[in-house]
């Protein structure tokens, strides 16, 4: 497949892949998205309103004392964009309003897209600063690490989200299992991760390797996505219903208003 064209914003927004390089069962469920109006508007806003000198300076100072994530939670910097509302509706394609649990929801900017067509939104966060932001949006937030502690309720959910979390947690395979066990009957688990995988855990300002290993980084998006599905998702009793590719966008400074990672999105159900 030829290299994807440059988007109007000047970013390389990759949504397609070489399906002949995927295992047959994943090639059959690949969904091609595109850079729609909502995506373009978010990029344009980031280019028009990047973080200023003082915000970036404060963030760099806080990073010496705490994790990047907590620094972002304190300052409201480096907001993220994964998929537009229309993209999520294509992938989740449910007309009925459903209950959602977003594990490690961050500041809720990504959650909000799915919340717009959900009846009930519950979140979890290990960062108290991010948990405060989630509650300010009007959502329930449990400050728990699901690997170690259960949600203080026996609820199950129609959709459980693990969006850009498994590559930053100590026990990603255990976390996927916990998320699977919180699915209601016929529920869907959505797992997103940047490709290629470069997992690490932050403890304050330091980084280390996670206790549970994910597949090693692969040279191509197709190989990386297939490895994650076959070695970390399917062995846990899950079937991939849909697979998509999209850019993972982050607001930056005036020199680099938007940074971009390559994302794989898996919509799964119990096998």
Task: Provide structural commentary.
The structure is a single chain. With 271 residues, this protein is of the alpha/beta class. It has a single domain, classed as 3-Layer(aba) Sandwich (Rossmann fold). The chain has helices at residues 24-27, 37-48, 53-63, 68-75, 85-92, 111-115, 128-136, 172-181, 221-233; strands at residues 30-31, 80-81, 98-103, 118-124, 140-142, 157-163, 183-195, 201-203, 206-208, 238-251, 258-270. The strands form two sheets. Strands 1, 2, 3, 4, 5, 6, 7, 10 and 11 form a nine-stranded mixed beta sheet that branches. Strands 8-9 form a two-stranded antiparallel sheet. The two termini are 31 Å apart. The model is unreliable at 1-6 (pLDDT under 50).
Q: Can you identify the CATH superfamily?
A: Vaccinia Virus protein VP39
Instruction: Report the structural category.
Output: alpha/beta
Radius of gyration: 18 Å
CATH architecture: 3-Layer(aba) Sandwich
Fraction of residues in H or I helices: 25-40%
Order of helices and strands: HEHHHEHEHEHEEHEEEHEE
What is the global morphology?
globular
CATH class placement: Alpha Beta
